[in-house]
Write a structure and sequence with these properties.
Oligomer: single chain
Structural class: mainly beta
Strand content: over 45%
Number of domains: 1
Helix content: under 10%
Number of strands: 6
Order of helices and strands: EEEEEHE
Distance between the termini: 32 Å
Largest sheet: 6 strands, antiparallel
Shape: elongated
């Protein structure tokens, strides 16, 4: 991604978002980059983690990229980690 803005639609690197994927399962998206592709379309690059309740169910992560509009439609709930 080129010309990474600090913030787009309030989405910042390090932010976490959740979406339900069925039952007690949810997917957490951890934003790792915000920027524009070669066509000037803003995109979010993020790692995903599957969760059951409050516990991670996978030890691996998957990196994905979505246009900001698609990311916002899929991951509507911003979450905070508790320590």
């Amino acid at each position: 991604m080129q010309n990474s803005p600090k913030n787009h639609n309030g989405i910042e690197v390090g932010s976490l978002y959740r979406r339900g994927v069925g039952g007690s399962m949810s997917e957490i998206a951890e934003v790792v980059a915000v920027g524009f592709d070669r066509m000037g379309i803003p995109h979010i690059r993020f790692n995903t983690h599957l969760m059951r309740g409050n516990y991670a169910t996978t030890s691996t992560t998957e990196q994905r990229t979505l246009a900001v509009e698609s990311f916002c439609a899929r991951y509507k709930e911003r979450v905070q980690l508790t320590k």
